[in-house]
Design brief:
Keywords: Transferase
Number of strands: 10
GO molecular function, one term: 3-deoxy-7-phosphoheptulonate synthase activity
Distance between the termini: 30 Å
Number of helices: 9
InterPro entries: Aldolase_TIM, Class-I_DAHP_synthase, DAHP1/KDSA, DAHP_syn_2
Oligomer: single chain
Structural class: alpha/beta
Radius of gyration: 17 Å
CATH architecture: Alpha-Beta Barrel
Protein name: 3-deoxy-7-phosphoheptulonate synthase
Shape: globular
CATH class: Alpha Beta
CATH superfamily: Aldolase class I
Pfam families: DAHP_synth_1
Helix content: 25-40%
Strand content: 5-15%
Length: 275
């Protein structure tokens, strides 16, 4: 049973871990997933993969199927994009994550990606979640921008009851009345999810902020709150990105951000050692 905010559960929950090859998510380290919102070309994803690898990130992200608000916006390269993503990941020694939007695409995406992502618009797509419960690959479920924490955790249960325990949750901000950011990052979700269910929690500050200038402090705050990883958007030229350019870091910004993030990780590691 999921506890609500008036019924606090003080029982110890075992922290869950998801292991992919030699990388474990949820083992007190902080992993970084980084890459473009949309894969635009082979050259683009390869140049980004190099920067991602050089700066210590472990997972290459990139969208091949893009659910956009407008049907006239760039919708992604589809299977071609998946091929570019897998190729870049293998070349640079990175795991890969990409979004699956339709249950019919699950086998295809499984061929190319190490982790399947469920986007905010599909968190309530229970038929899709049920099918993801039948696969033997990690699933990262993003919180809907209008979902409560309880609804978020119950969505994860749809994957779990299908038999797939390789579940990662992603806090990416929720819609509020605030106009300075795209969404509002719910920092409280990190320790609450950890206490209630023990799932690894990744934070996507890019979709929460919708702007690149505050990504570093949001990332550091997430690390301090106990997140298991971060998902960052990187693009060689954000001004010309086909999607989400305003919230993407260019290569110089990403390098500086990773330096700050690594310092925050080290600080929290030392804090835990003193507890």
């Amino acid at each position: 049973m999921i506890q609500n905010n008036t019924d606090h559960n003080h029982e110890s929950i075992v922290k869950k871990k998801v292991t992919i090859n030699e990388l474990t998510i949820g083992d007190d380290s902080v992993v970084v997933m980084a890459g473009p919102c949309s894969i635009e070309s082979r050259a683009q994803i390869n140049s980004i993969a190099q920067i991602v690898k050089d700066n210590g990130a472990q997972i290459l992200r990139g969208g091949a199927f893009k659910p956009r608000t407008s049907p006239y916006s760039f919708q992604g390269l589809g299977e071609e994009g998946l091929e570019y993503l897998a190729e870049a990941g293998q070349k640079h020694g990175l795991l890969t994550i990409t979004e699956v939007m339709d249950s019919s695409d699950i086998p295809l995406v499984c061929e190319y990606a190490d982790i399947l992502q469920i986007g905010t618009r599909n968190m309530f797509n229970y038929s899709l979640l049920k099918k993801l419960g039948k696969i033997d690959k990690p699933v990262m479920l993003k919180r809907s921008f209008m979902a409560t924490i309880e609804e978020f955790l119950l969505a994860a249960e749809y994957v779990l009851v299908g038999g797939n325990e390789k579940i990662i949750l992603c806090e990416r901000g929720i819609r509020t009345f605030v106009k300075f950011t795209r969404n509002t990052l719910d920092i409280s979700a990190i320790p609450i999810i950890t206490k209630l269910k023990g799932y690894p929690v990744i934070v996507d500050p890019c979709h929460a902020a919708g702007r690149s200038d505050i990504l570093v402090p949001l990332s550091r705050a997430s690390i301090a709150a106990g997140c298991d990883g971060l998902m960052l958007e990187v693009h060689p030229n954000p001004q010309k990105a086909k999607s989400d350019g305003l919230q993407s870091l260019n290569f110089t910004q990403f390098t500086k951000a990773m330096t700050s993030i690594q310092r925050a990780i080290q600080f929290m590691r030392e804090e835990k050692a003193c507890e």
